[in-house]
Amino acid sequence: MPAITEDFRRAMGWLHSWLGVTIGVVMFAVFWMGSLTVFAPEIDRWMIPETRIVHRERAISYDRLLANLPPEAARSDYINFVVPDARRPAIGMFYRAADGEFRSLDLDPATGAPIDATDSHAGTGFVYPFHLSLTIEWRSLGYWIVGLAALSMLILLISGLFVHRKIIAEFFVFRPKRHARRATLDLHNLSSLAGLPFYFLMPFSGLLIFAFLYLPWGMAEPFGGKLKDATAAISGEYAVAKPAGRPAPLASVDAMKARAEAMWAAAEGVPVRTNLVRVFNYGDVRAAVYFRNTFPKDRVTLSEYVAVFDGVSGRVLHDFAKPPIGHASAWVQGAHFVQFGHWPLRWLYFAGGLGGCVMIATGMLFWLRKREAKLSANSPGYRLVEALTIAGTSGLIAATGAFLVANRLMPADARFVMESRADGEVLVFWLVWLGTVVHAAMLRGRAWAQQCWLIAGLAIAAFLLNAVTTGDHFVAAVGEGLWAVAGMDLVLLIAAAIAGRSAVRLSPVRPAVPMPVAMPAE
C-alpha cells in the first residue's frame, strides 16, 4: 500500500509539473487580466478622461434621452442604456447601426448630451474581453482556451495537495535569503496556500458561467434539447418581434421603468433598481422596452428580474423572476464578477488575483530552476519555456503598461494601420508583448531585470502623462473626489516601486574590480 501511495504521489507530481508549464502562460494571462477586470470601470475613467464625472444621485429621464437621440441611433432597432452609478457616472449607451455594427456613446447624466470621449477600448472593452477569451473570437476559440486553462487550474490545485505532504507546515515557511530555487519554491507554496479557496472559486465559477458553451447538451436536455429555451428559463430572455415598418409613438419609458421597479419591490420586499434599459424597434408599432436589474449593489446574485413592456401600449409582456436554479447560477456569476458594492471585498479579489499570478509565475520559474542542471540550458525546449515564462509574466505586465502609456500619448485622430484609435492602443499592447518574447529569447536570464525596469518606467510614465495630459494629478484627483483616477495613479506608483525593487534583486551581481596598485617610481 505505501508503494502504491508513493507511486500515486509521483504521478501527481509529474502531472502538476508538466501541466503547469504547458498551460502556465495562459493561466497567468487570465489571472492578470482578471485582477485588472475587478477595477475595469475605474480603468475606463482613467483612460477616458471625459468620463471623469463626480457621481451625483439624480433622476434620469429616458423619455428625454430618447427624444434627443443622434439621428443614426433614432433609426436603430436596438438601443441600450446602462444606468449610471458611482463607478460608472456617465450614462452608457450603445445601439445597432444600419450596417449591423454596434456603436457606443457616453452621455452626460446631467444634460443627456453625448460626451466627446477619447476613443479607447480601455478596461471594459479590452481588459475584460481578454480575461474571458484572450480576444480570440474565431469560432469561440478564445473561450475554449480559457476554459482549458480554468480546468487545468483545478487539476493543478488538486494535484498540488497530493504533492505537498506537509501542507500546513509549508504555509509558515518562507526563506527569501536562501538560494534562489529554495526561495522560489517557498514563495510558490505560500502563495498557493494563502489563496487556495479563492483559486478554486474563480476557475470553477468561470466554467459554470460558460457551461452553455462547454456543455450545451447538458443544459438543453431538460428542455427537449433546445438551448434557447434553457437560456430563457434561466436568464429571462424574451424574443421580440421584428419591426413591422409601421411608425407608432413610444409610450413613456420612465413610467414603464417605475412600474417594473414597483413589481420587483413587491416581490422582493425591498426596493430593486433597474440597471439596464433597452428599447427594441424604436418608433415602430412593434416596439418593446426591456428592463433588467443586471448588477444589484446590495447582493451577490446578478440579474434576478426582467420585465418587458409593449412599447406602444405600455402593457406588460413579460415579468420574469429567476427560479431557484437560476438563483444558484446568478450567485455563481456574481461571486465571479464581483460587481456588488463592497469595496473591501473588491480589493481582496484584486489581491487574490495578484496572489494567483505570483503562484503561477513562481511555479513556472521553479520548473526552470529545477531543470537547469538536469537539462542542457541551451536545449531548444528549455530555452522555449524560459522565453515564454519571462515574456508571459513580466512581458505581459510591461505590455499592459504600454497600453496605458499609448492611451495618453496617441492623438485623438490617430489611426495608424488600424481602423480606429482604440484599435491602435491594442496594437501597441500586442507589439510590445511580442517584443518581450524576442527580448527574452535573445537575452535569456538577463531579460528578467530589464523587463522589470521597463515595467517601472512605463508605470511612472503613465502616472506623469495622466497629470500632464489631463491635469488630474493625484492631489487634484483626491481634491475633486475622483477616487478612481487617484486610485489608478496610486497603483501605478506602487507597481513602479515593486518592479524597480524586483529589477534590483534580479540584476546580476558584478564582481568587484580591484583598485589598481600604484607602482613605485623607478
UniProtKB/TrEMBL annotation:
Output the InterPro entries linked to this UniProt entry. Answer: PepSY-ass_TM
Using the record for this protein, list the coiled-coil segments as residue ranges, or answer none: none
Q: Where are the transmembrane segments?
A: 18-40, 141-164, 185-215, 347-368, 388-406, 426-445, 452-469, 481-500
Q: Which Pfam families match?
A: PepSY_TM
Q: Which UniProt keywords apply?
A: Membrane, Transmembrane, Transmembrane helix
The protein's name: Peptidase
